[in-house]
Design brief:
The complex is a heterodimer of chains A (about 325) and B (about 325). Chain A has about 325 residues and is α/β, with parallel strands linked by helices. Helix content of chain A is about 40%, strand content about 10%. Chain B is built from 13 helices and 14 strands. The chains are: A alpha/beta (about 325), B alpha/beta (about 325).
């Protein structure tokens, strides 16, 4: 069992990372009536998981570097929680050569294969087929590892969701599907666009064991994910975890999300997973100053990452022509 | 050297068998492949390698291709069968946004060695959704290799090369070539990106690929009876394509005709012709199908087919300095 202060630390680091990225992204993209300034340090669409940190922290606490993970366009939390270096992550968001992807991917494609993080993805539900294939490879190679596959509530309305759940069940693959349900599909309420009872019900329809959990309670997520992953590791086949949480920010960082009911947002802010964790910590006899210290450490770590990324060199322009293909390399026209 | 007489389909099965024997990381997945595939191009492989490596799948094209990407990222070399290219359209995100781009967008952390087989071409009266030739779509995408074998030997040698190259390969066999038989030299290496000159000539260069290269060869034979000497090049790989061989030939003959079964408008022939015109200033012409769906009734399907006579007409028009006329 991971101690609550360790789970809190992961959440605090994700929160600090995304807060810093959010500030650096203002003016980074022209959308939602916001102007692009051309001066932002984090450019392009930046999808924040602020408010959803308990899901990444609670699940990834059970993973080891040899386990694999696929993520979504909202993937900073999963990447950090899987063990990626925040300095290199921030460099990637800043588009610098020292970034995890050498500046070639940015936020939407952030990946760190060295810790088993096989990539965020700019296409909703695209990570699911990749996850089941990776799990099939693990099984073929008799590797003692599992795949955690994160996706959002919007993804369950795409075909690859059904295909991949069916596939994982048919072949009995070691995958934990994690539906990180933040209630919003871009700028549309997911429940208005989704028939039936959602991700867990759809998983059960293919005979997969699925559980629903309060995705803002990191201890609940941690306990449930631990139980499901134990079965996955034991070779009992795939499982699905449906974690209900809330997206504090807009679809992208410059989206004011004025389409949402302010009461709904206010209620969600009171259910902030970091506050929930603090309450749980206190009820277990923990001392708040321990968590205050974690907050300060996280802030300092991320401040250093921002400073590092701001001073880091851009990629060599010639890198635009590397890592594409070996066969026919050089024939670009 | 040992030669064996094999069909185009058997040649592919033999190439895959040898590759799987030599590299235990290679697996195949797709619908009905355990029974040998609907064209017999996987015959005998399930019996030889078992269901762990010859994997029958649900009818889930997105996940066949997407799982192949995941397998490749995790150290396996998958052969993903799409049945016909028309069905690969259900997996375009996985091919174009995932397989083709993962290596680049993740900064070279992972590679995606896979072979996606998606047979192209007419297949008598199979109508609009089982007859297309969509090679140009994939030639457009950075990250992909595009291969269109036209003979049994090339199907053996190019599949062998595709499995060894480490890149995502779009491998497009032709559905009307499965039964075409040839003597196979299993030691013959055909590098990706190398064309074959099927016939030498001096008056014009005809470039084609897949089954149409054989049709062009027939046309060249007819033309020679009329005193026209046509050189015929089978491109074999569309990306990377053998521009050196094409430009060398066109520079000698001064005229280039590109012929393909695919629709002419925005086809890969336009790329070849434009390159020759830009580089050499030589006269160029294209001949492909009209921009219509492939029809079912033989008389309708015929409107999409290119015959040897049409190629010969286009060649003569090019020699006469007239604009080549595409079929109506």
């Amino acid at each position: 069992m991971t101690p609550l202060n360790d789970l809190y630390r992961t959440m605090a680091r994700i929160r600090a990372f995304e807060n810093a990225a959010e500030i650096a992204s203002q003016g980074g993209v022209q959308v939602f009536g916001q102007k692009g300034t051309g001066q932002a340090l984090v450019r392009g669409p930046l999808h924040l998981s602020t408010g959803q940190e308990a899901v990444a922290a609670g699940v990834c606490a059970h993973l080891v570097p040899t386990d694999l993970l696929t993520s979504t366009h909202r993937g900073h939390g999963h990447t950090l929680a899987k063990g990626a270096d925040v300095g290199r992550m921030m460099c990637e968001l800043f588009g610098r050569a020292a970034g995890t992807n050498g500046g070639k991917g940015g936020s939407m494609h952030i990946a760190d294969f060295s810790v088993g993080m096989l990539g965020a993805n700019g296409v909703v539900a695209a990570g699911l087929p990749i996850a089941v294939g990776a799990a099939q490879a693990l099984k073929l190679q008799r590797r003692d590892a599992v795949v955690a596959c994160f996706f959002g509530d919007g993804a369950i309305n795409r075909g690859p969701f059904l295909e991949s759940l069916n596939w994982a069940k048919v072949y009995g693959l070691p995958v934990l599907f994690v539906c990180e349900d933040n209630r919003w599909s871009a700028t549309t309420r997911t429940d208005a666009m989704t028939a039936g009872e959602g991700a867990a019900a759809r998983a059960r329809s293919v005979g997969m064991i699925a559980e629903q959990v309060d995705g803002n309670d990191v201890l609940a997520v941690h306990e449930c994910a631990g139980r499901l992953l134990q079965a996955v590791r034991a070779g009992e086949g795939p499982r699905l975890l449906h974690a209900i949480t809330y997206r504090f920010k807009g679809h992208v960082s410059v989206d004011p999300a004025s389409y949402r009911n302010p009461d709904e947002v206010a209620r969600a802010l009171k259910d902030d997973p970091l506050l929930v964790a603090r309450e749980r910590f206190a009820s277990l006899g923990g001392i708040a100053s321990e968590l205050d210290a974690i907050d300060r450490e996280a802030k300092a770590e991320i401040d250093a990452a921002v400073a590092l990324a701001g001073a880091a060199p851009w990629p060599d322009p010639a890198a635009a022509f590397t890592d594409i293909q070996t066969t026919g390399a050089g024939q670009w026209r | 050297m040992a030669l064996s007489s094999l069909s185009y389909a058997q040649a592919a099965a033999r190439a895959l068998e040898l590759a799987m024997l030599g590299n235990e990381r290679i697996v195949a997945l797709g619908e009905d492949i355990g029974r040998g595939g609907i064209f017999g191009q996987y015959n005998g492989l399930l019996e030889r390698f078992g269901p762990q490596r010859v994997i029958d799948t649900p009818i889930s094209e997105s996940t066949i291709l997407g799982a192949a990407v995941g397998m490749a990222l995790a150290g396996v070399v998958p052969v993903a069968e799409m049945r016909v290219v028309d069905f690969a359209l259900c997996a375009m995100d996985e091919i174009v946004n995932q397989a083709a781009k993962n290596r680049y967008m993740f900064g070279g952390q992972g590679r995606v060695p896979l072979v996606a087989r998606m047979p192209i071409g007419h297949w008598s009266s199979s109508a609009a959704q089982h007859s297309q030739s969509l090679e140009a779509w994939f030639a457009h995408m950075p990250g992909l290799v595009v291969v269109c074998p036209g003979t049994a030997q090339d199907n053996f040698s190019l599949l062998t090369a595709a499995l060894a190259c480490g890149d995502p390969v779009i491998y497009m066999e032709h559905k009307e070539l499965w039964a075409a038989t040839g003597e196979i030299d299993e030691t013959l290496v055909v590098p990706l990106g190398k064309s074959a000159t099927l016939r030498a000539g001096t008056d014009l260069t005809i470039v084609s690929w897949s089954k149409m290269a054989q049709v062009a060869l027939e046309a060249a034979s007819d033309l020679s009876g009329q005193g026209v000497s046509a050189e015929v090049i089978d491109l074999r790989t569309l990306w990377p394509w053998d521009r050196d061989a094409v430009l060398d030939s066109a520079a000698r003959t001064g005229r280039l005709l590109v012929v393909h079964e695919a629709i002419q408008a925005a086809g890969f022939g336009a790329e070849v012709a434009a390159t020759a015109a830009e580089q050499l200033g030589c006269r160029v012409a294209r001949l492909g199908a009209p921009r219509i769906p492939v029809g079912y009734a033989p008389v309708l399907e015929a409107a999409s087919r290119i015959s040897p006579a049409m190629i010969a007409d286009a060649a003569r028009a090019l020699l006469a300095g007239k604009p080549a006329r595409a079929p109506k």
